[in-house]
Write a structure and sequence with these properties.
The complex is a heterodimer of chains A (about 270) and B (about 80).
Chain A: H1 2-9, E1 35-37, E2 40-42, H2 44-64, H3 73-94, H4 102-117, H5 133-164, H6 174-218, H7 223-266
Antiparallel strand pairs in A: 1-2
Chain B: H1 21-47, H2 53-74
Helix pairs in contact in B: 1-2
The chains are: A mainly alpha (about 270), B mainly alpha (about 80).
Chain lengths: ~270, ~80
């Protein structure tokens, strides 16, 4: 891995071994398996995802396992999360009938958020969702829910109509627009959901990595060397703090867009 | 949870619009160009015309998708 490589080699600008900037690339997202369970090779992202799942289960178990009328501290925090998801995501997007999806949105929101937050945890520092498989799986589940609800609500013909036929247009236009609507609903929307989350986390992690490696690379025993190295280090810290905001925001946006996607399935067939 | 019994008008859900324009528009534009551009590409392959119908398809798809966006969000 390049970051570790740089540290080990003592690769500096104007250093004795005269090496160029070892820019971190896509290889910082690739991990060797840590251990294997049967046929499964468990890598760092997979392990982190499992840890996040356990953390969330433990937290919400503690919050709601024995819920009381007057909430304690953990339950209060849990209810804060519940109300956030219900009032900021489910109801604005779907309305009151979206309340029954709140458990799904909550699972998704907190799982994605905690996996994003792994980029901030010292010595772990890897956003799990920057491996495209994770967002892709969330989008696949959202797609399955969307399809199921579309056909359950409208029946087979009505469901197909809801998927593919925009309403209120002259007849000949349908020939051109129906394929677009259909492709958009069944393929492109989950695809853009995946890419949005993946690319944000990928780019954020890359930025932090570039500034961190640069801070080490620019160190040299001179005023300008120390100044530029410190500047780069400060940028790494600033970007890490900025990423903290992005991690929350992307989890929120992903959940909100899934809610919007699902609300489409619940619309009356026109 | 007893919070469920809150009257709905207390939450910021008095009016919800369901669809999120930004994401839907992106998705429609992409699928418009993808579908009709793809059709154009296939026609090019089929007729062996090089690159004639691909750009036509891309533009047709983009125009159609923009029209669909207008129908969905602009016609109020």
């Amino acid at each position: 891995m390049s970051a570790a490589h740089v540290l080990a080699d003592g690769c500096h600008l104007m250093g004795s071994n005269n090496c160029g900037f070892p820019a971190p690339g896509a290889e910082i997202f690739v991990f060797d398996p840590l251990f294997t369970i049967g046929p499964f090779e468990v890598t760092k992202p997979a392990l982190l995802a499992a840890i996040c799942a356990v953390l969330i289960i433990v937290f919400f178990w503690a919050a709601f396992g024995k819920s009381k009328l007057v909430p304690g501290r953990v339950q209060g925090l849990g209810e804060l999360g519940y109300l956030f998801v219900r009032d900021q995501i489910a109801r604005p997007m779907i309305g009151v009938k979206g309340d029954k999806f709140v458990p799904y949105f909550m699972t998704m929101f907190f799982f994605i958020w905690s996996m994003n937050m792994m980029a901030f945890v010292p010595f772990v520092q890897f956003p799990v969702t920057s491996r495209i498989f994770f967002p892709a799986m969330f989008a696949t589940v959202a797609w399955a829910v969307y399809m199921y609800l579309t056909f359950r609500k409208n029946g087979f013909v009505g469901g197909l109509k809801n998927l593919a036929v925009p309403s209120g247009l002259p007849f000949w236009v349908y020939f051109i627009l129906t394929p677009i609507e259909f492709l958009s609903n069944i393929f492109i929307r989950p695809f853009t959901l995946t890419i949005r989350l993946f690319a944000n986390m990928f780019a954020g992690h890359m930025l932090v990595a570039v500034f961190s490696v640069a801070a080490w690379y620019l160190v040299s025993p001179s005023l300008i060397g120390m100044a530029s190295a410190s500047l780069s280090f400060v940028m790494a810290v600033v970007m890490t703090a900025f990423e903290l905001l992005i991690q929350f925001l992307q989890a929120y946006i992903f959940t909100m867009l899934v809610a919007s996607y699902i609300s489409q399935a619940l619309e009356e067939a026109h | 949870m007893d919070k469920d019994s809150d009257p709905p008008e207390k939450s910021p859900a008095g009016r919800h619009d369901g669809s999120n324009p930004g994401a839907t528009i992106t998705s429609l534009l992409i699928s418009g160009m993808l579908f009709w551009g793809g059709m154009g590409w296939l026609v090019d392959k089929w007729l062996g015309t090089g690159t004639v119908f691909l750009p036509i398809g891309l533009i047709l798809g983009l125009v159609a998708a923009l029209y669909l966006v207008y129908v969905r969000f602009g016609r109020d």
